[in-house]
Amino acid sequence: MLILKHMNRYIQFFCLMLMPPLLMCAGDIPSDLKKMNQAYTAARSFSMKVEIQLYSTAADAKPQVVQKGEVKKQGDNYFSRMEGRINIKKGMEMVFVDENSKTMLVGILSEQDGHEELMAYDSVLNWEKEKMKYLVNTPDLKKIVYSNEEDEQYEKIELSINARTNLLTEVVYYLHKEKTEAGDDSEDYTFGKIVIRYNDVQLNQPVPESAFSTKEYYSSAKGKLSGMGKYKAYKIVDQRNQKVEFK
Fold first, then answer.
1. Which domain holds residue 77?
2. What does the CA dihedral 30, 36, 42, 44 come to, rounded to 10 degrees?
3. How far apart are CA 48 and CA 11, in angstroms?
4. Between 126 and 207, the higher pLDDT residue
5. Is the pLDDT score of 72 beyond 60?
6. What integer is the mean pLDDT of 72-89?
7. C or N terminus of the chain, fewer CB within 10 Å?
């Protein structure tokens, strides 16, 4: 089974945090997280702007890299755009476009695979209650921090939730300082802090069907794929005859 490997790793970061599962811990934190979870799981559709800021170290005031994009979902259809990388899921059809390398991948998702995989963040189920606390707890803002020195990647993670709408507004990942300084080969460790902000979040508002259309990207004639418009010269990788996983 092939895997679409060329997705932007930071698209995965913000997708992973869209629908966090419930956490078992003390105080009012479970209630706040439950409300946030229900706000997204009950939504028939959503759209949002996303900004990702990458800092060399956690202490830096200015990000080294800033990326901006958008995410839309309506039923089983999904669209995201981030710095020239486009992901479209329409039914079981999956299209990934990399405008930087001028490459397009077209595939059919395996039957058991769904966009819900991108909405899960299973590791939070292991967060111990004593490692979580409020940084801010007001009628307007809930800011929760999870600290874990034993985690392989993140020293701590901060979640900011709009207390009036129960929507996630920001996630901050702090990577282990010693791993960042060691210059680990993994791209994740080239940054000490990753900040993801969600703006203009709209739930249960109709998203035009055209937002998930693949017609402007490619056409198919006699089984052969061809790029359309500005994508005409793109290299197209046809994976339709092999079931793929959306990861």
1. 2-245
2. -160
3. 13
4. 207
5. yes
6. 93
7. N
Q: Measured on CA atoms in the order 46, 49, 52, 58, is the torsion positive or negative?
A: negative
Structure tokens at 138: 């007001």
- Listing DSSP states for 168-201 in one string gives EEEEEEEE-HHHHHHT-SSGGGG-SEEEEEEEEE
Per-residue pLDDT for 125 more than 50?
Answer: no
Give the residue with greater pLDDT, 118 vs 39.
Answer: 39
Q: Would you tell me how many other CB atoms lie within 10 Å of the CB of residue 90?
A: 17
pLDDT, average across residues 20-30: 50
Contacts of 186 (CB under 8 A, 6+ apart): none
Q: What angle do CA 137, 140, 143 make, to 5 degrees?
A: 40
Number of separate domains in the chain: 1
Mean residue pLDDT across the chain: 80
Contact 192, 223 (CB under 8 A): no
In angstroms, the CA 58 to CA 154 distance is 12
- Phi and psi, residue 59, nearest 5°: -85, -15
Segment 159-186 shows an average pLDDT of: 79
- Tokens encoding 14: 């913000």
Give the dihedral sign, CA 220/224/225/229. Answer: negative
Lowest mean pLDDT among 9-18, 51-60, 99-108, 188-197: 9-18
What pairing do the DSSP bridges indicate for beta strands 77-82 and 65-74? antiparallel
CA dist., res. 16 & res. 84, Å (int): 20
Vertex 176: Cα angle to 33 and 189 (nearest 5):
105
Q: Is residue 174 within 8 Å of 149, Cβ to Cβ?
A: no
**60 against 23, higher pLDDT:** 60
CA dihedral 18, 169, 12, 220 (to 10 degrees): 70
